[in-house]
């Protein structure tokens, strides 16, 4: 009988141990020998600061999983290969993960993929198709590992303190906003404010924050954002003046060009902040955001140069990750910026 | 003295806001296609409305209503890029090809391809050829 060749993507989940066990067991059921490829796909580039730590963690997980496989295989003929994928690119949505798995299965001529049911790589949002769907459309046969897992009662609700943090944060945000609109010195507004903020935080806290809050990190981010706003306004003023000169000149020396910039900011709020800042600055306009690949229409050469220098990107990284991670090469230096034709849209 | 300074600051802000709104209107007329026009349309929202609202806040002085103008500005800054992006994206999805530096040279050959997809866009492109003639 032919050997079964299986790909098992791993991540630190509660069911990762059982998934490895299932892959070995089910593989050996219908074949004499088994070749298991254990892989960890990393969302970040290995070069950025947060990437190095992830590579370390991935390697530890892989060596653990390798021991599990030999443990489960017993005397059967099982070969194990391990790999860390995605170190040279920026994985974002399930589609990127499906692509990278497809590439790997093609390269190594693998038959099937065993998925951990708890494996949710990258960003999962209701807008994006889940990994299973993406694998199906890529034509890769996959198998969901039969595992026993603790039932999850409420998906969106976190653990005790985390939940409290959300209610707490949203309560004070909405209370503050209410008092800005009302009168902070009038007792009636204070009382109704508490009531309204209570209702808002109770009903919407789980929807508002799609990510866990950090008790120090989140306020610090807010303060850094306060520094970012004047900088953004200054950039907007500069760009407005530059565009106004170009428009008012009789010869109108515009040079419209469609460019692609691979932004190195996390998806969600950081990406939204960057894409919106790019659009707010006249001269650059985000036409599409295919995950991290931003298609930006630029109107004048100076705006394009600014975009390729990545000042806004660094500022957004500063807001969300601090000063050290703001020191990254510009999109031009790392080859993430290019001019593309209009048909790329 | 301070009143006079405030008066002139308000005048300067309003005039500057008017200037950028005017530039934006000129840009919408002069620029060749929908993508380029989206750039300049956002000028009205950012600096045009921004400076006018700053003038309003200054004119109202230190009271509750001037806080509202700052809030207004904040919301404009959130909604403006969203709207600009939505317009550009829907244009891209309708298949309108942007006029680029390369294609501006052979502007007349471009027209048949876009004319079928969107009547408005072909009208816009008609205007661009006139402008393109000026630049060439």
From TrEMBL, chain A:
Keywords: Cell membrane, Membrane, Transmembrane, Transmembrane helix. InterPro entries: Cation_antiport_E. One of its GO terms (cellular component) is plasma membrane. Signal peptide: none annotated. It is a multi-pass membrane protein. It is found in: Cell membrane. The chain crosses the membrane at residues 164-181, 187-213, 225-248. One of its GO terms (molecular function) is monoatomic cation transmembrane transporter activity. Its main location: membrane. Pfam families: MNHE (PF01899). Residues 326-345 are annotated as: Disordered. PANTHER family: NA(+)/H(+) ANTIPORTER SUBUNIT E1, NA(+)_H(+) ANTIPORTER SUBUNIT E1. This is Monovalent cation/H+ antiporter subunit E.
TrEMBL record, chain B:
Residues 123-136 have a biased composition (Acidic residues). Pfam families: PhaG_MnhG_YufB. The keyword Signal does not apply. Keywords: Membrane, Transmembrane, Transmembrane helix. GO terms for molecular function: sodium:proton antiporter activity. It comes from the Archaea. Residues 98-136 are annotated as: Disordered. The chain crosses the membrane at residues 7-29, 49-78. This is Na+/H+ antiporter subunit G. The lineage of its organism: Archaea, Methanobacteriati, Methanobacteriota, Stenosarchaea group, Halobacteria.
């Amino acid at each position: 009988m032919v050997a079964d060749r299986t790909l098992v993507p791993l991540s630190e989940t509660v069911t990762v141990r059982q998934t490895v066990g299932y892959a070995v067991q089910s593989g050996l059921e219908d074949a004499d020998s088994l070749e298991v490829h254990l892989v960890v796909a990393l969302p970040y580039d290995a070069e950025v600061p947060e990437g190095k730590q992830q590579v370390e963690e991935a390697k530890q997980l892989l060596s653990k999983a390798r021991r599990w496989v030999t443990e489960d295989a017993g005397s059967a003929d099982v070969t194990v290969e391990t790999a860390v994928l995605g170190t040279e690119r920026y994985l974002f949505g399930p589609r990127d993960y499906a692509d990278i798995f497809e590439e790997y299965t093609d390269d190594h001529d693998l038959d099937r993929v065993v998925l951990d049911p708890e494996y949710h790589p990258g960003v999962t949002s209701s807008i994006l198709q889940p990994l299973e769907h993406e694998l199906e459309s890529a034509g890769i046969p996959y198998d969901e590992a039969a595992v026993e897992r603790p039932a999850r009662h409420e998906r969106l609700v976190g653990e005790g303190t985390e939940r409290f943090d959300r209610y707490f944060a949203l309560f004070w945000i909405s209370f503050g906003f209410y008092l800005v609109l009302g009168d902070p010195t009038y007792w009636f507004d204070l009382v109704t404010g508490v009531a309204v903020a209570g209702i808002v935080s109770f009903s919407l806290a789980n929807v508002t924050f799609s990510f866990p809050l950090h008790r120090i990190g989140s306020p610090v981010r807010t303060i850094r954002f306060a520094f970012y706003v004047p900088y953004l306004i200054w950039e907007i003023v500069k760009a407005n003046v530059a565009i106004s000169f170009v428009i008012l000149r009789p010869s109108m020396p515009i040079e419209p060009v469609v460019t692609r910039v691979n932004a190195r900011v996390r998806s969600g709020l950081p990406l939204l902040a960057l894409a919106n800042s790019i659009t707010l600055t006249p001269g650059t306009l985000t036409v599409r955001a295919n995950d991290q690949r931003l298609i930006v229409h630029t109107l004048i050469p100076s705006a394009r140069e600014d975009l390729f220098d990545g000042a806004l990107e660094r500022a957004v990284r500063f807001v969300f990750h601090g000063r050290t991670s703001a020191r990254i090469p510009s999109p031009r230096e790392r080859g993430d910026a290019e001019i593309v034709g209009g048909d790329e849209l | 003295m301070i009143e006079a300074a405030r008066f002139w600051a308000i005048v300067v802000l309003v005039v500057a806001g008017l200037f950028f709104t005017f530039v934006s209107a000129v840009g919408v007329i002069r620029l060749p296609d929908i993508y380029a026009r989206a750039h300049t349309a956002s000028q009205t929202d950012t600096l045009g409305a921004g400076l006018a609202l700053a003038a309003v806040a200054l004119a109202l002085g230190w009271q509750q209503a001037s806080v509202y103008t700052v809030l207004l500005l904040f919301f404009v800054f959130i909604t403006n890029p969203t709207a600009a992006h939505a317009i550009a994206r829907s244009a891209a999805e309708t298949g309108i090809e942007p006029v680029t530096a390369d294609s501006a040279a052979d502007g007349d050959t471009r027209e048949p391809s876009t004319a079928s997809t969107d009547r408005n866009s072909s009208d816009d492109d008609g205007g661009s050829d006139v402008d393109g003639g000026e630049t060439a």
